[in-house]
Each structure stands twice: as structure tokens, then as C-alpha cells.
Design a protein that fits this description.
Rossmann fold; single chain; 29% helix; alpha/beta
Length: 180
Amino acid sequence: MRIISGIHKGRKIIAPKKLPVRPTTDMAKESLFNILGNHFYFDDISVLDLFSGSGNISYEFASRGTTDIISVDQDFGCIKFINQTAQTFKMPIQTIKSDVFKFLEKTNIQSTIIFADPPYIFSIEEFSRIPELVFKNNLLQEEGVLIVEHSKHMNLSELDYFSYSKSYGGSTFSFFEAQL
């Protein structure tokens, strides 16, 4: 994987093969950050990266100037790799080793952007728990957005708080926002 933009643009990060990850493709990641760049100043936001895996999304936010980033994953190897990479590149990423659903049930941290990249094999019921917990526990700041990455074969448009989705290759980003 490589960092698309920002102060670390072009840097390649090679995750150990043993990590249970499926990094977001460069094409999808670039498209996502083009959308986000039209709505947010990256140095003014806070980010919660759920199911963070290799840390791919967190690194992209850090490279673009975001200084308040929390990455959550239940795999110790993933957390260790993110910590090592963040330290190497002097990125302000805080990690939390936890089951994401348990974390969402207990946390009171509010973020501008919550990005979730759960396993594509999740059922619709498992996917639906993410926005359910985020909005029930008021984890988004005002004007914030929850983005859930999933397979293009999974349709999340019927879930509460769904706003719109964008597909890139085999991946889809579904955006969820509080209805005002």
C-alpha cells in the first residue's frame, strides 16, 4: 500500500503477510479522500478508524495533517504494526486493541469522521450494528459522518441514517449522517 497524498505522499508501507487484513485499494482510497477533501479541512478534524487493520486509512489522514486519530482493531498484530508505522513516520495515531462493537458500546469519544472497514463477509445485521451504535451513543460531532466500507454486493441503503454511497471497483463506501 502507498500513501496517496500529504507530507508522506508516495511512501510505501508493507504490512506483514500474516496480518488478517484487506487494505482499501489506492483507487478507492484516492476517490474517498477527494470526497472528504471537499467537505473537511483535514487539520481541523478528529478521526476514529474502526477495524483499522493495517492502518492504511489512518496513515492517509495523518499524512494530510489530521492530528487526532484513533485506530481500533481487535488483532494484536495489527495494533503493533500501526504503532510501529506511526512511530517510524512520527504520525499522531493512538491505537486501541478492542473488539469494535464492545468499544462502540462503551466509548464516549466523539469524532468528526468515523471510518469503518469491517470484514466484507459480515451479515447485514452485523453491518447495521455499526451505525446503530454510533448514532445511539452520539459518537459523531455535529456535521460529522460515518463511512462504512463494504463489498459492492452488500446494500446498506435501507439502514437508519444512510445518506448515500459511492462504489469503486469491488468496494463501496456508504455514508451515514444524522438527519437534522
